[in-house]
Design a protein that fits this description.
31% of the residues lie in helices and 28% in strands. By secondary structure, the chain is an alpha+beta fold.
Length: 195
């Protein structure tokens, strides 16, 4: 049976896998279809590992700087509130959904560099409401922001009466309230003239 995993030496940083100079074990298909054609990895050897030492040191410095920037961004981002306006029907159901990219773009407009995959939506946002959204840069770096999805126009109030049901599940008929004594007076006149 063929081997399903292969060890490779990373020649570039690969998100969620490692930095340059790391020896990683990956699935054969991932190596053959993604890492090797893009020259992101090669077969590990002592010579290649030694050649990448300087590049690895530079990558570690850049990673440390990026980590500090993200820590600062999380400190500023925690508890922020954003508003996104969307088209919707009169019940508040959106014609399209709010995506991770939409939230990342809103954060980008506010000066935060966030990738769409770093935005974690708890579910698909398809209606006008307020939502808590997690922005996660790493296992120990995350912030929660408040997202307000608002309609792009004024929604018309629903004028229908709510239906009421009794304990047996039968519809309770609502009778119109008596307005005033004025309509009752002509009925009394009609009764008097008939007699």
């Amino acid at each position: 049976m063929a081997t399903k995993n292969v060890k490779l030496l990373l020649t570039e940083n690969v998100d969620n896998l490692g930095i340059v100079g790391d020896v990683v074990t990956v699935r054969l298909g991932y190596a053959r279809n993604y890492l090797l054609p893009r020259s992101l990895a090669t077969a590990p050897s002592a010579d290649r590992l030694a050649a990448l030492t300087e590049k690895r040191a530079q990558a570690e410095k850049e990673l440390a700087v990026l980590r500090e920037q993200r820590r600062g961004a999380i400190g500023k981002m925690e508890g922020l509130e954003f508003t996104i306006s969307r088209s919707c029907n009169d019940l508040g159901h959106l014609y399209g959904s709010v995506t991770q990219q939409d939230v990342a773009d809103a954060l980008g407009a506010a000066g935060f560099q966030v990738k769409a995959r770093e935005v974690r939506l708890p579910f698909t946002i398809k209606r006008v409401d307020n939502f808590d959204v997690l922005v996660k840069f790493g296992s120990d770096m995350e912030a929660t922001i408040r997202l307000h999805v608002v309609p792009d126009r004024t929604l018309e109030e629903d004028q229908r009466d709510e239906m009421e049901f009794d304990n047996e599940g039968n519809l309770v008929e609502k009778r119109p309230a008596k307005k005033s004594a004025a309509p009752a007076a002509p009925a009394a006149d009609g009764a008097a003239s008939a007699g």
